[in-house]
Amino acid sequence: MTSRLPLLLAGAAIAAQIVYPLVHGGIRDVVTVLVVALLAAASVTHAAATRGARWTVGLVLVTAGLGLCSEIVGTATGFPYGCYDYSVGRLGPALAGVPLVVPFAWTAGFYPVWCVASVLARGPYRRLTRIALTTIGVVGWDLYLDPQMVADGQWHWCVTDAGLPGVEHIPLTNYAGWFVVAAVMAVAVDRIDRRLDAGTRHRDGVPIGLFLWTWLGSALAHSVFLGAPELRYSAIYGWLAMGILGVPLLVSLLRPRARRPRTHDTHPHA
């Protein structure tokens, strides 16, 4: 049952995301919190099952811990994301104006991207490549997340004309801040991984599946199932950015694996 728990949690998270466009108001707020909690739980339980307790504690401390600190500083000072405020009360208890579910969204977004980047990174610069791909992938995830949550009124920005075409109300400083914070997280988790995991290969079907669902499912949801017109633009931006990892991942998954040559045992069996 323990080995199936991450899969069950991931399935429940996907089911909650499917429900999200069908509900509104307070029920949608509850579903939003549930999605984050289930995605984070799927990531944490999978990491614990495959990489061990110490690695997982490090992951949570880096992603949720640094995420919370950056959000508290961000809402108080505008650095590093820009000037913004949460609609406190809609997403449950808050600390210093930041809903406590928010830092676990960092964990939920980071871990699947990290696992995919670990699959794709190869060669003598594997660690540097993995850090770079993780950073790009996490920023790509936010290209979906921020427009969707702003459209739903979960937070708002002080400026309205400093962003990408179609989503000008989300400033470019937001993505710059995400890039910096995600890069710091990736470097920190890489150091944890070197000390506690040493590049061991893992069965990462659950986080890889969550990555593909987020990449492709969010593009579909923003294009078809969610009503805000700006989400037609975020569907493109998120698909392109996460596709930097997603396209080569699909190629690697769909490519036929070369058969290993058979070895013949020339010694008699006992």
UniProtKB/TrEMBL annotation:
Keywords: Membrane, Transmembrane, Transmembrane helix
InterPro entries: CruF-like (IPR007354)
Membrane-crossing segments per the record: 31-49, 56-81, 101-121, 128-145, 172-189, 210-228, 234-254
PANTHER family: SLL0814 PROTEIN
UniProt name for this protein: Carotenoid biosynthesis protein
